[in-house]
Amino acid sequence: MAYTIFIVEDDPWYGEILAYHLSLNPDYKITRFETAKDCLAKLSAKPDLITIDFSLPDMKGDELFKKVREIYPSVPVIIISAQEEVSVAVNLLKLGVTDYLVKDEATKDLLWNSVIRIKENQSLKKEVEHLREELGQKYSFQKTIIGQSENLKRVFTMMEKAVKTNINVSVTGETGTGKEVVAKAIHYNSEKRKKNFVAVNMAAIPKELIESELFGHEKGAFTGAVSRKAGKFEEANGGSIFLDEIAELDLSLQSKLLRVLQEREVIRVGGNEKIKLDVRLIVATHKNLADEVKKGNFREDLYFRIMGLPIELPPLRERGNDVLILAKHFADDFAKENKLGNIQFSKEAKEKLLKYHFPGNVRELKAVTELGIVMCEDNEIKADDITFTSTKTDDLFIPEYKTLRQHTCDIINHYLKKNSNDVVATAKALDIGKSTIYKMIQEGEIEVANN
């Protein structure tokens, strides 16, 4: 596709020289104009680049530039002028002119090189835009957050509401439920997707470094500050910042974060310059922030500032068959990466997955599935190939939707295991009759493991 260049030059001879020189590149399509009025009349053609003579008969170059920007804000403009005053060039560049060239013998070559640089920058911007669009598709809700449970559908509904505005979003849920995945999906499906998504784990940054990390610092602000550094809020300007584990932020810094959010500006540590911010804030925590406020660990005014639109992620144990859908998804991804072919789950393996409560949630399921693939034979994961990796020592008592009878069986099983299948010792420890335990074993409610 031709690269279209408009040349606005009232001197026909000089305009012809510039047009001829640029036309040596067969990819360039050159159109010349001798007045500002003629150029503006054809601006609907959306040229890729415009060169403007500073002294036109019907309008000054800076005036034409301003009018062009009103109609077509993104087009790069080069001003060519006989004036060599630095102040003129500086003022034009401040207005947003892409380049300023002085008319002399070298102008043709300088223009040639300037057009090449601008064209390369435009190509890079288009490539970045394309990559961002691909990210948006990658982070579409249904592709990013796998599952069909009613609990998850409610999450999708809240996420759809979040992307329509720039309201702050607070994501809560147990560890491993996918809070950062939700934050990325909101960013890459919103109007902010063309700018940065910056994630900060508040719990992973030492207290003495968090202020500099978030807000940046000036050279010499403290020992070791050998140069100016932009903070995470500056990096995210125009986009979204994700503050994970927000409840871990020290009280002394909560007031500074509140000021930044209220004023929508940041001052680097050791500096005075106020940097305006346009940032979408997304926070996450596995703690109950309202409880933290009551305990005095979290400022109430900051709590109300950041809550915005609350999105609560359900634990995996409350998502029913999503466990199997996710397991298949993880298995397909792992098999593809390792060129293993199609992976299947046996009926017993599926039942084992559904019965487990997954204290580590989606993250744990992924690890369990990948280990199961490594251990299995003939690309079929059987029950024995599934090893639960939870590091919790008292998983038995994690709340689940079970009947009292089911909890009773779990408790008896737990004590039988501790007592090496000694029914008498177990009955004594639980203060129940041993005949009750024998009857439950006989009826298949309790399975006695072989030593």
TrEMBL record:
This is Sigma-54-dependent Fis family transcriptional regulator. The keyword Transcription applies. Residues 4-118 form the Response regulatory domain. SUPFAM superfamilies: CheY-like, P-loop containing nucleoside triphosphate hydrolases. Gene3D superfamilies: 1.10.8.60, 3.40.50.2300, P-loop containing nucleotide triphosphate hydrolases. The modification 4-aspartylphosphate is found at residue 53. GO terms for molecular function: ATP binding; DNA binding. Keywords: ATP-binding, DNA-binding, Nucleotide-binding, Phosphoprotein, Transcription, Transcription regulation. The lineage of its organism: Bacteria, Pseudomonadati, Bacteroidota, Chitinophagia, Chitinophagales.
